[in-house]
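Changelog note: in this version the structure field was regenerated for every chain. One regenerated record is shown below for reference.
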Amino acid sequence: MDLGLKEKKVLISAGHKGVGAYIAESFLAEGASVAICCRRESDLHEALEAYNSIGIAVGELCDFSDSDAVRQWVINSAAALGGIDICIGNASASGQHGEGPEPWNQSYAIDILGNAMFYEAAKPYLLQSEAASIVQIATITAIEHHDVPISPSYGATKAAAIRMISQLAQTWGKEGIRANSVSPGPIFIEGHRWDDIRTRHPEIYERDVAMHPQKRMGAGHEVADVVSFIASPRASWINGSNIVVDGGYTKGVNF
């Protein structure tokens, strides 16, 4: 299936590693051009070197808890790519550990305010696109309790992000901008969260593998493929949805 993503301009926050890297590579493989941001120069250079072997990719450093920096990244990316068609909100505080207000402040600053400023800054450019789309990367922890070692701020702020996207779908949808969220379940990527849990908490890892009907973790490309489709013109009638990508891990019945 041709997703109609050729020559589309895609901004991906934290598009340098993990699921973000799979998403970036998926769009590049479809012929889109990509702009990413991250916080470390070494990560940025490594990602761009890999991406530019596939297609057109640009990027810059950006602290997503800094609203001014987020806006400037959007402006610079639009200038570099020649516009914006798609925004992928992947940056997250990832539920920083610790007690007190700091984990909550960080989660709010990045997962809510950072993404809100991302979409707000991108809106003038999205209004000029015939295929304008926003996809927020959320999590199943936003919709169902997940007993893993992570701050409670993670699920709470991701749930708020889903609600934010739902509202954008209604208010910006009439202006031609679709907005959806994608909620992955446990995804195994070497060197990332579930790899760490497998090492430090093997009992949790094995338990969660067993809770999947297929008795395995999901893979990065299985999330990226869904994100690319939902963001693409081929999903033109999907708006305001939260797509769960978890291989049947969550057990809720939604209808």
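Spot check on this record: The mean pLDDT is 95. The chain is about 45% helix and 15% strand.
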